[in-house]
Amino acid sequence: MIRPNADDLATAMGKSWWLLLLRGLVAIVFALLTWLQPAASLAAMVLVFGIYVLADGVLGIWAALSGRKNQRHWWVLLLWGLVSVAVGAMTFLAPAVTGLVLLMYIAAWAIVTGVLQIVAAFRLRKEIQGEWLMGLMGLLSVAFGLLLVAQPGAGALAVAWIIATYAFIFGVLLVMMAFKVRKFSNQFG
């Protein structure tokens, strides 16, 4: 394993590993709530999704800004967070949006953040072992977004289950990544 320096993305992520953990737990709670209430109205789904994406974005921005002085690739995390905040804000500004438009918001968010996660994983490959988890999260996000674009006519209940499944898997991968980053950070503390 290569020893990190203060400018590495891995070092910045290691300092805020708990943000990855928190983001993963938020995603898992979101998934569980969605599975437990599958017949909830689309309006409630819009608000729950908006809260999740906004929380994910704020935590992503926090992680990026907290490491900006120590590493040069902080902008990837910042862009990831800003996209999430923008989609969350759009969700709250237009709560009566149709299911199709909501699906396109979610699809665009998943595809863009997935690509950014793949970029971050690519940058991490020389800094830590286990960067494949972030790459897998990115691939999952892109696949999820493309599935929503390809199948926009799916029923609201089916979409709720797809979203919950995506959020659960993504949350588990974030939790795994958090502990991997924490272990890495502790090795070189």
- Proportion of residues in β-strands: under 5%
Characterize the main sheet: none
Helix and strand pattern: HHHHHHH
Helix content: over 70%
Unreliable residue stretches: none
Total number of beta strands = 0
Structural class: mainly alpha
Our Rg estimate from Cα atoms comes to: 16 Å
Number of helices: 7
Short key terms for the protein model shown above:
single chain, 189 residues, mainly alpha, 7 helices, globular
Write the layout of secondary structure elements.
Elements: H1 9-15, H2 17-36, H3 42-66, H4 74-93, H5 99-124, H6 132-150, H7 156-188
Helix pairs in contact: 1-7, 2-3, 2-7, 3-4, 4-5, 5-6, 6-7
In short:
By secondary structure, the protein is mainly alpha-helical.
Describe what this molecule looks like in 3D.
The chain has 189 residues and is mainly α. The protein is built from 7 helices and no strands. The protein has helices at residues 9-15, 17-36, 42-66, 74-93, 99-124, 132-150, 156-188. Helix 1 packs across helix 7 and helix 4 (74-93) packs antiparallel against helix 5 (99-124). It is globular. 41% of the residues are buried.
